[in-house]
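hey m, so remember when u said the tokens were messed up on ur end? i reran from scratch. heres the input so u can diff it against urs
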Amino acid sequence: MRRIVLTTIIGLSVLAASAQKKGKKKLHKEVEVSKAYRPTVNNAQKLNFTPTDKDTAQYKPTFNYSIKSNPVESTHDITPLTATKVNTNQTETLGLGYAKLGMGNYTTPYAELFVNKRQSKTTSFGMHFKHLSSNGKVELENGTKVKAPYSHNFFNVFTQHYGRKTDWGIDLLYDRNRITYYGFAGKNDIPTKDNGEFQNWLQNQKQVFEKIQAKFDLSSRAKKSKVDYDIAFKASHFSATTDQKELFLGADYNVKKVFKPVTLWIDGSLFMADTKNIIQGANTSYMTAPAEALLSDHNEVFFKLNPTAYWAGDNWKFRLGFNTDFIFEKDKDAEVKIAPKMYGEWTPIEDILTIFIQTEGGTSPQLYSNSFQENPYRDSYELMKNKFITYEFKGGFNGNFSKSTSFSVYALYSQINNEPFYNMMWGGEKALILPASNTFKVMYDDADLFQLHGEVMHNASKTVNFLLKGNYYSWKMKNMDESFGKPKFDATFTSTIYYDSKLTFNADLFVEGGRKYWYYNSEEVSGSSGFQQVANRQTITTDPVIDLSVGAQYKYTDQWHFWARANNLLFRRHERYVGYAEQRFMLMLGVGYSF
């Protein structure tokens, strides 16, 4: 089987190479966005901490940069962001960077520094540092106050070189996230660790996720009849306090060539991930045995090859292709998964209405280093299963009601294999059947997802604007009766008011439906041989999240400004992850300097 797969890969690669030798015109479509350039960490590494450090500061320097648009996007899929590229055609003198300092209650220091060398015709260079931490306490459902510290440290150094025919860049990243397992589900007293009986009980134990990454990007400045390409080579090392380690080596690629009237391109990725000291899949035996006894290593090679054909007219676009995944895992037979993809777009009224439909499918590799985004408190010993989207359909429309109001609406339906759901497993203080645990176990099921999405952006005037967007999710599982650990809906409202040239206000309201979880408690029941202990499964639904926040910025000079941010003005008690109460009202004050 492995020989057949390798032969197929080589054959497709030869076809791709031969397809690049014809054609005369290059397709170059980019979305131009004007805002402050900020190097972005992979989304999967941004753990959901509270509070946020958002403020209303408008920083200099201001960059014009382009983002490579990818219309195939799924809200339930973890998709890494591609690095942005600074536009070489600058039209204004840019500042060197900015610095921010702040402090909030819960002993929450915040610091950020961004420096970017003024770009010459051929090179740019910069660095970005950020620190946010908290050392406060939170109150659990049973009234106990516990320490809930966290911290996020991020450091990034990057350089870009612009040549006559090629551009290349180097990006070095260090990212460190610390969390604490302080959570407890239910109103009973928190169990105590006694003689090692609760080997999975992690009360007040810290977890640190640390990542070091190097990336080299090479892209063409293709002229007519030339091949357009973009290749990014990556190497990273990820580790956890619980002694899990991941070594990642890989590359993303995109090769494109115009053949009138069609454009052909091939994109995809090739990587090797070696993960150590993990438990693979949903192994329930480790709930009653020390996790260390079941640890093993895992090696995976993943190759994605996605050929696509593209046509475009004056008011329409159409793409057709398929996604091909080759998966080689340790102690498993090689797998080949193929899923068709299509995207169509029609604009019957220019600048007013665009209608689109798309189908998509393929494998979503669940790398260990990327698997804590949805739930940072999940069991760190487990390597999650790869998720496969057998079929996804998305259709909708977007456009403009007027010059000041734009909108987007779509519906999405997906069929998914190995969708992860999350439940708390806890056996209680005197458990004999299940050991005490306050981490979340991953449970997998085949599922259908129906999603509705809508958003409206409105500029009421030159000084007032707002954005309203929301999602509704309906899950249907093959075996489970609830979509454990996932919300039914979410909505966001954000508004900015520029009072004058010096004073700016903003407000944000985030609403999310409650999430359902299992958790097991133990109880004693009377039997023929006396009292016996049994595991009693309960279902808990967390309260909806209603988070109202406001901020303000005062521009003292062109360089200095002062800012303030207040989160959770309603003083609500939030538990996105059952048992893990979040900080309530928080106020942060700070100062910023642009240079």
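this time it looks ok to me. Confidence is low (pLDDT under 50) at residues 1-93, 195-199, 283-290. if urs says something different then somethings off w ur setup not the seq
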